[in-house]
Structure formats: C-alpha cells, structure tokens
Specification:
Blueprint (H helix, E strand, L loop, with lengths): L1 H6 L1 H8 L27 E5 L6 E2 L12 E4 L23 E5 L7 E2 L12 E4 L9 E2 L2 H7 L2 E4 L1 E3 L5 E9 L4 E4 L5 E6 L7 E2 L4 E6 L1 H15 L3 H13 L4 H10 L6 E4 L4 E6 L6 E2 L6 E4 L3 E9 L11 E6 L7 E13 L4 E9 L10 E6 L7 E5 L4 E2 L4 E6 L4 E13 L2 E6 L6 E5 L1 H22 L2
Antiparallel strand pairs: 1-2, 1-3, 4-5, 4-6, 7-27, 8-29, 9-24, 10-19, 10-23, 11-18, 12-14, 12-17, 13-16, 14-15, 16-18, 19-22, 20-21, 20-23, 21-22, 24-28, 25-26, 26-27, 27-28
C-alpha cells in the first residue's frame, strides 16, 4: 500500500501548490508481439487490469476472471523525460540549477538522486527559469500528452435563450356580444361553447322597446322625406348597436321589425355562451364571447441575465408538449417592461400563426429564442479556458514547446466558443487540449521557483 500511495504524490503536490490537481505521469500499457515481451526489473509497485484502466495494490482478478498484471518499477513510465547522464546537457551549454522530485513533491536536490520508488530526479536548467511566465515542454512530452492549439479568431457567437411558456389568446381577436339597451332574447341559434361561427352569421333574435321606438322614428322620417331628420334617426339606431346591414334592411322595407336578428361580430370559436331563449338581457351583459385562434400568443418567462440578449423581432421556435416534433416559428412582439419579483424573470410575448389549430389555450410550450451578437467578436474555444473561479486563464502557444499562461476576461458563450473581451489578440494560438497538464506544470514551476528563492535567501 505504501508503494501505491506514492503513485498519487504528484496529484497531492500540485494541489498543495495551488495548481490544477493533475498527475503528470501515467502507467504505460505496451502492446507488443509475444516475442517482444521482456521481463521488468525492480520491485512490484502495483497491479493493473489487463482489460482496462484499473489498478490494485494487491493481486486480484477482474470481472472476467483474469489475473491482474504485476507492474514493476522499470515498466512504469513517467510523463517526464528520462534525465540524461550528469554533465550531458552541460556539454551543450546548459547548466543544471537543481534536481526536482519526479512525482511533483516539494523536494529538490543539488545533485542527482532517486526517489523511494527508484525514479530519477528531474533536472531544472538555468535557461528554463529565465522567464517566470513561460513554461517549456519538451517535444517528447508534448507528443505524449496530446497538446493541441488553434488561433483566436473573430466570429459570431449565437447563444439561444431557452425558456418555458404558455399559449394564450390574443385579446385583440376576441369579441363580446352584448346589448346597449334593455331587451329580451326571443330565441338563440343552436350554437354551444366550442362551435365555430363566421362573421355575420345569426346568433339570436332580440326584442327591445327602445330599439323598436328608434326604428319607428327612422321609418317615420323616411316616409316623411325629412332629410334634415333622417341622419339623426339613423344615428340613434347606430348608437343602439345596429350595423349598416340591419339599418339598410329597415330602410328598404319601411317597416318596424318586431325583433332584430343579431349577427356574429367576427369569425371564431364560441368560448362562452350565456344567452338563453326567453331571458331578459340587461345593457352590457355578456351573452356570447368569441375568439379567433388563427393567431395566438406564447407568453414566456426568461431569466433576468438573458434580458440583454433578447429583442423584439427576433425569431423564436415553439415546441409544445403535445407536438414536440412539429416546431412552429414566431417572432417576439414585446418584452414586458417589468420583472417578476418572485422569480426574477422577464415576460416576453411571441406571436405566431395557428392556422392548423394545433395550439390550444393554456398549453405549455418550450421556447428557444435565436439570439446573436451585433457583430463578430474575438472568441476562443471553451475547451481552451481554464476557469479557476475568480479568474480565467488561457495558455498561449508561443511555439517550440513554450507556453505562457494569460489571464483573460470572458464574455458571452455560445456554439462551443466564448467571447474574449481582453487578455489576448486576434491570431494568438491557445491550447485547446491537455491545457490542464500544462497549467499544472506552470503552477509546479512557480512553486519550485518560490521554494528555490526561499532557500537562497536563508
């Protein structure tokens, strides 16, 4: 168990230095032909599953009944390059300052040595510490870790805003049928709630004393050919609610009708009916309510943080729970000028056609609003960002295995990219994969530098 604990020393050391806790080595699982297998040397440091990346401190079997394979000290491969013989690099003009623990532990040595597992300490050269902000990674290590980079470019960032909504009627397409005088409902056509009516279609027949008196006056002035009084008599009928067609019918017949046939004011469905044959109807009492469903509203509540991204005129995709595979496009008509205090959301009104009648009142709907920036912005892949909470960092690829951590300010996210408001310039190459390993190397280097300076000051 002691040997296994040593395998995780690097992770603990990097965490202690404030870096991203990353183990800077891995167990090598070579695939060789049977004739190429060589016995390892040194003590057994752990056992690995021959079928997968699983490890054990003691001998055991996997789920398939196969024995775990013993891994000896010589078979374990570090991500660090094998240190050359002492003085080898010095002959090339590079001087070794000290040697550091290969597992990342806070231990240095002025001379070559081995750790308790038999691994050589890693040399740290003078030219590697000239620029404290730059990390130098060898080509061998870059190949092992799979480092990838790409340039920062300007692009459009579209981040759709998603919210839940509810289908509602457009009150501008709703009519209430009522009387402007006291009357009696002689009879009602056979319409019930939910039936569809067309504009001008008879709904009921009405008798009213005031209506009869106004009609009699209109007929009298017509028969008297009193042009000065005709307009006043006609205006009185209009004020009582008669339309042009009804008044024209009275003028043609020159007779006072006993009852008036009351028509539907618009196309739509009868969603409420209170008129009954023989009932007395007071002025203003609602007898029918008719709604046109050819255009409906979807009222959606969006989070307060997304209000800036939403604007009137943007396209919205509506998917109802009843028809998830039949999206309907609409447009934002209005953003209501107040927030809901309890939910901290803003309500938007989306108008969309309902020609097939699929959208029913009070249906729940999933809303996706297509938002986009005003233009192209500097953006980097989200995978390139190392988010440490209070700060965000990108690793600049400066070529020849040199990398520089750069603190940046992040803006909007969308389509797998993030807006970079400051910190890098267009064309700078940033690391998009294995960046946490390089960040760990950077933090480790900074910690060792601080340790080295601390020892020098004693």
């Amino acid at each position: 168990m002691k040997d296994v604990k040593l395998l995780f020393g690097a992770a603990l050391a990097v965490a202690a230095f404030g870096g991203a806790g990353v183990v800077l080595w891995r167990a090598k699982e070579p695939v060789r032909a049977p004739t190429e297998i060589h016995a390892g040397t040194g003590p057994v440091i752990y056992y690995r599953d021959p079928d997968g990346p699983f490890y054990s401190a003691e001998p055991k079997k996997n789920a398939a009944g196969k024995d775990y394979v013993a891994v000896r000290a010589s078979e374990d491969v570090s991500f660090e390059d094998k240190p050359p013989a002492p003085g080898h690099q010095e002959s090339r003009g590079r001087r070794i300052r000290y040697y550091r623990n290969p597992m990342g532990l806070p231990d240095t040595s002025p001379v070559p040595k081995k750790d308790p597992m038999g691994m050589d300490y890693v040399p740290v050269y003078e030219d590697e510490t000239q620029d404290a902000s730059t990390v130098v990674i060898s080509a061998t290590k870059l190949q092992k870790t799979g480092v990838r980079s790409e340039p920062v470019q300007r692009r459009m960032i579209a981040a759709p805003v998603r919210a839940s909504g509810r289908v509602d009627f457009d009150p501008r397409r709703m009519s209430v049928v009522s009387l402007r005088f006291e009357g009696f409902v002689e009879s009602v056509e056979k319409f019930a709630e939910g039936d569809y009516v067309r504009k001008g279609q008879p709904l009921m027949r009405i008798y009213g004393p005031d209506l009869s008196n106004a009609a009699a006056e209109y007929v009298a002035v017509l028969n008297a050919h009193s042009s000065a009084r005709i307009e006043g008599a006609r205006r009185r009928l209009v004020n009582l609610g008669l339309d042009d067609a009804m008044i024209a019918a009275i003028a043609r017949s020159r007779r006072v009708p006993r009852v008036i046939t009351w028509p539907a004011p618009q196309d739509g469905h009868v969603i409420e009916r209170k008129a009954l044959s023989g009932m007395r109807a007071a002025p203003g009492e609602m007898l029918f309510r008719i709604v046109d469903h050819s255009v409906v509203w979807v009222l959606a509540d969006i989070p307060e943080r997304d209000v800036e991204s939403v604007a009137a005129g943007q396209t919205a995709i509506i998917r109802t729970r009843s028809y998830p595979d039949r999206p309907i496009k609409g447009r934002i008509a209005l953003i209501y000028p107040h927030l809901n205090m309890e939910t901290r959301t803003a309500r938007v009104r989306i108008e969309l056609p309902n020609t097939e009648g699929l959208l029913l009142g009070d249906m729940y709907a999933d809303v996706e609003i297509e938002t986009g920036g005003k233009g192209k912005v500097l953006a980097a892949p989200e995978s390139a960002i190392i988010d440490a909470g209070k700060r965000q960092v990108l690793l600049l690829d400066k070529g020849e295995g040199r990398f520089e951590p750069r603190q940046v300010k992040i803006g909007r996210h969308g389509d797998g990219y993030a807006e970079i408001e400051s910190g890098v310039a267009e064309g700078d190459r940033v690391v998009t994969s294995a960046n946490f390993l390089i960040d760990a190397e950077s933090n480790l280097k900074a910690a060792l530098e601080a340790l080295d300076h601390g020892e020098a000051g004693k």
